[in-house]
Structure formats: structure tokens, C-alpha cells
Amino acid sequence: MLHTITWTGHAARLLDQTKLPMETAFVEITDEKLMWDAIKRLVVRGAPAIGVSAAFGVFLGVRDDASEYLEDFDRRVNEVCDYLATSRPTAVNLFWALDRMKRVSKETRQQGSRSEEQMTAKIKQRLLAEALSMLEEDTQICREIGRHGLALLQEMVSGKKLTAGKGSEFRVQGSAEEATERRSDGTTQGHTETESSKRATRNLPLEPSTAHSPSAAPISLLTHCNAGALATVAYGTALAPVYFGLESGQAFHVFADETRPLLQGSRITAYELREAGVPVTVICDNMAATVMSQGKIQAVIVGTDRVAANGDVANKIGTMGVAILAKHFGIPFFVACPLSTIDLSLATGDLIPIEERDSKEISNGLGRQTAPDSVDFYNPAFDVTPNELVTAIITERGVARAPYGESLKRLMGK
Ligand code: MRU
Questions:
Q1: Which residue, among 121, 303, 126, 136, has the nearest Cα to 225 in the 3D structure?
Q2: pLDDT bucket at 160, cuts 50 / 70 / 90
Q3: 300-to-153, 284, 326, 393 alpha-carbon distances in Å
Q4: 304 Cβ inside 6 Å of ligand 1
Q5: Residue 113 gets which letter from DSSP?
Q6: Do 191 and 153 meet the contact criterion of CB atoms below 8 Å apart?
Q7: Is 305 one of the catalytic residues?
Q8: Are the C-beta atoms of residues 4 and 51 closer than 8 Å to each other?
Q9: Is the pLDDT higher at 178 or at 103?
Q10: Which ligand 1 atom lies nearest to the CA of residue 228?
Q11: How many Å separate Cα 414 from the centre of its chain?
Q12: For residue 208, what pLDDT is reported?
């Protein structure tokens, strides 16, 4: 298995995702400047992987600091965190990880009764330990997302009769309108309400999701961008149910949107699924409507960089279009993410900062110039899908459904 991030003992070793799928190369990151650059250039990418990498960046940025006074060392920790925070603005996991590192530094300092030199050494040690535990935790979290997501998908295919629909060979019965209606009356939310999701939305302790027996036919999914193992430490978020399902004999077929302009879908999602032996079909972004209309998709599942308190979801540019199409064709639209991606401090999605990237990614992204000189470009890297298009949000603690203002808070224990 390819590892996105590993700690070598002296450096963070990152898989260079800019080179995929043709080259499997790794880079060793030994200071915070190299880490900033790796995050910015998408050497490491995907919200959870960005968070964990930034945590290592903090340690790397302070490990050689020789400040005599704790106050100066403390200033350096904050400086490095502030610097890394400027690498990419949308994935809240970056800020979540940096806050966590700052907290570790502060708490260790407050416990101190030793010399300033000893305290500094202790903080450095704790910062590394924290980054290493984030690395460890991410795998566990994604596995749990996979478990909940698999149960949801299996329930979807077993509990819902698949019938011929609008131009479809098969589709999930129950239109998107019906689902919205059921949500708005506040009793039932989403396409199917599982016992575990009922518990989640009512703040009851979550019961472990029980996987249903594998469906005979492969479950057919569409995903956008890459929210797989390579966007995290392992398993991924949107692709976690696929990998978790493989372990219990559930087959999948994944349609991967190519994902212009940087092609994370065809370069990375298709690559990692092929490596895992999962059947994958790459389509250009503008083919999703056709594929859906042909009844080839049972559910859409994507990751996210930030979820606002009302359930609006920021994800790779193009996601909102896929969600609109899914609604049109009555296909469930699922979002999978760790709790660290949920930002309750932002009431709605329009407050999420959206990264704008270099126009060259559009004009010269395919190895040659594909647009005339002297024209304007607009390259927002993310869009925000309104919560009413989201069937459910799958987290490590269970599944949230509308009304998200309440269910997300309960999942977060607030
Ligand atoms: O620009 P990227 O490649 O970092 O964008 C990644 C995505 O949009 C992912 O879907 C998101 O970060 C979730 S990753 C589990």
C-alpha cells in the first residue's frame, strides 16, 4: 500500500501526488518552508492529509529553534503555525491541526516547573508526539467512516426497491423531492433513516453500524476529485466504504469524474482504485449527466474540505454541479468526512473561504497551452453545495441528516 505521509525519524516523507499516475516519487520534508510549498503545490492534498502534514510542519519548523527563553520559543511556535496557515485557505483541517499543535504547546508550558531549556525540549517532544498521533488517528477515523458509510450504502440498495426510472435501467425509488419533503417535516430525514442515524440525530449514543449482507451486484458510485486513501493517511473518506466493503466481500464499481483542472479524479482516484483492484471508470466532468441518466449510478459520494454549521459543503470545484444533477435524477448525494472537517463556527457555506488558484492550471494544465493568450481566467478551486442537496453526511461518529443545524451539533457533542 502506498503511504501518503510517513515519519522517517528526521523528516516527513510525502508521496508526490503532482507526479501521479505516471511516477511514484516521494519527497522528504525537513522544514516548515518545504511543507508550506508541498501543501500549496498539492504534493500533499486532501483535507485530512493537509492537516496531518501541517502538524509535522509545525514540529519541523521549531525543532532546531535554540531560543533561550520560553517566551521566544512560544512566539516561534505561533509564527510557524501562522505561516503554515497561509498555505491553503479552504480545508478547515489545516486550521484544526494547527490549533491542536498550539494547544499542546500551551498546555505543556502551563504544566512546567522545570528550567526554560527543559521546557522547550519537552514541548518539542510533545509536538512530535501530537503529529504522530494525528497520523495514527486518521487511519482509525477513516475506517470508522468506512464502516458507517458501507452500512448506509448497503441499506440503500437493500432497503430501497430499485425500479426503472426516468431513462434509467435502475434507480433508487423515492425522488429527491420526496426526500426533501420528508426532511422538512422534521420527522424523517433523507432517503432512509437507519437506527444509528436516528440515534445520531437525536443525540442518543450511537450504536455500531451493522453492515448488511453484501449486495449481489456491485454498488455503483460516482465520486468527484479524490477523497480516497491518498487524500488521507489511509482508507480515505468518500472511498472508505469501498475499501471497508472489500474486506467483507462487497463489490463496488466507481465512476470517477476526471475533475478539471488538476485531474485528481483521473490521476489519483483512478490510480488508487486500480491499485486496490476496484473496477473504476473515468469520465470527463461533463459526462456525469449522461451517465446518471443511463441509470449507471446508485449514489454519489464525495469528500469535503469544510462543512458549515448548516450542512453546506465545500468541496472540489464541480461538486455542486454533480449534486444538482443527482437531485435531478433522484440519486442520493452523500458526503463523507471526519468531524475535524465540520466547522460550527461558520453559520453558512457562503462564509467558507474559497481558494483561487493560478490561471495556468486552466490554460496550460494538460501539458500544452489550451487557450489563447490574453484572455481572462477564473479558477476557484472549490465550490459550496447547499445543504438541501445533501442526503447525508457520514462521519466517524455516525450519519447526520437534515436538519443539519441540529444533527451536526449533536454529532460534535455540542
Ligand atoms: O485540491 P485538493 O486536491 O486538495 O482537493 C481535495 C478535495 O476536494 C477532497 O474532496 C477533499 O479535500 C476531501 S479529502 C478526504
A1: 303
A2: low
A3: 10, 15, 7, 12
A4: yes
A5: -
A6: no
A7: yes
A8: no
A9: 103
A10: 15
A11: 22
A12: 41
| Cis peptide bond N-terminal to 21, omega within 30 | yes
pLDDT in tens, 222-259: 999 999 999 999 999 999 999 999 999 999 999 999 99
Catalytic option among 257, 305, 312, 343? 305
Pocket test for ligand 1, best of 14, 40, 45 (most atoms within 8 A of CB): 45
Cβ–ligand 1 distance for 237 under 6 Å, the answer yes
Quick one: which atom of ligand 1 is closest to the CA of 225?
A: 10
DSSP 385: E
Domain spans of the chain, in order of start: 5-138, 161-411
Domain 5-138 of CATH type 2.40.40.20: no
- Judged against a pLDDT cut of 90, whether residue 178 lies above it is answered with no
Highest mean pLDDT out of 74-78, 183-187, 207-211: 74-78
Q: Is the minimum distance from the CB of 381 to ligand 1 under 6 angstroms?
A: yes
What's the confidence (pLDDT) of residue 193? 39
The reported pLDDT for the residue numbered 209 is 54
Arithmetic mean of pLDDT over the chain? 89
- DSSP letters along 4-52, please? SEEE-SSSEEEE-TTSTTT---EEEE-SHHHHHHHHHTTSS-SHHHHHH
Cβ atoms 232, 48 nearer than 8 A: yes
CATH architecture of 161-411: 3-Layer(aba) Sandwich (3.40)
Q: Is the CB of 245 under 6 A from ligand 1?
A: no
Q: Per-residue pLDDT averaged across 127-154, rounded?
A: 98
Residue 46 has pLDDT above 70, yes or no: yes
